TrEMBL record:
Superkingdom per UniProt: Bacteria
Name listed for the protein in its UniProt record: Copper-translocating P-type ATPase
Subcellular location(s) per record: Cell membrane
Species of origin: Arthrobacter deserti
Residues represented out of the complete protein: 282 to 580 of 630
Protein family (similarity comment): Belongs to the cation transport ATPase (P-type) (TC 3.A.3) family. Type IB subfamily.
Amino acid sequence: ATPMALLAGTGRASQLGILIKGPQILEDTRHVDTILLDKTGTVTTGRLAVTGITAFGRRTEAEVLALAGAVEAGSEHPIAKAVVEAARAAGPLPQLTDFHSAPGGGVRGTAVPGGGTPLALAAGRTGWLEANGIVPAAEERAAFARQQGGGATAIWLALDGETAGILSLRDTVKDGSAAAVKRLKELDLRPVLPTGDNAAAAARVAAEVGIAAQDVYADVLPEDKVAAVRQLQDAGRTVAMVGDGVNDAAAQAQADLGIAMGSGTGVAIEAADITVMGSDLGQVVQAIELSRRTLGTIK
Ligand code: ADP
Ligand code: MG
């Protein structure tokens, strides 16, 4: 395509709410044959709801929710937003200090509930909890597995280094995601679903939108998303990575084409070659169609 055509293509894209870093990006887009779609917030709404709470020992469900809300208040993760919303609806949150966030793992901090003695809080996935020296008992793991049944996402709450409870959450697939995946396949792009979430939750979403079971990569840490991109590239694929979060930025940078959904953070947009301003996966398809049309490879 001529430089003029490419420039016209990027101009047309911006009218559609699609920001393309430079005309060269359109050329890159043409070679992409594999498209990684981050699950939470990209394929799904990312608006989760708390659907279950389990309290261990002398803890109550109300305490588990309030303390999880306190430690999640500093996080922007969709899980955190859901927990905070549910906790706030039940009452005021304990104050938190020393907040730390481990992307793809969990969050921790210190609370002083009711002005009593400080309490170390941690909320997150199993592997991250264990890496912090907190190992759930067998019956607690069984409860965790039950709560994740049917495709929910469960997280642990730990207090002073001991497991205190479990919260489970559910997410819904965005309206346009199944149609977008169908169109991607028609464009000869192989959709792949990498996610830090558990296998059952990932499989449920994949089945709903039409992504093949063997193209689901579950329990993937942010740094492993980079490795997944590299592996596909080593296998000769040209890879696009679509994500909405800061935890997707490194994989987007590694990919041949990084695509950010506009609802995500500034960091992810920095790493992206293409940014779609809306939250519909259909806009990603539009971006690809537009570039191919600009290059005259489809009508
Ligand atoms: P995804 O790839 O689906 O966007 P992430 O990589 O952000 O997911 O997170 C992966 C997993 O890490 C989550 O499913 C959850 O178990 C845990 N996690 C991440 N952030 C938090 C948080 N703020 N609170 C609790 N758990 C978290
Ligand atoms: Mg995400």
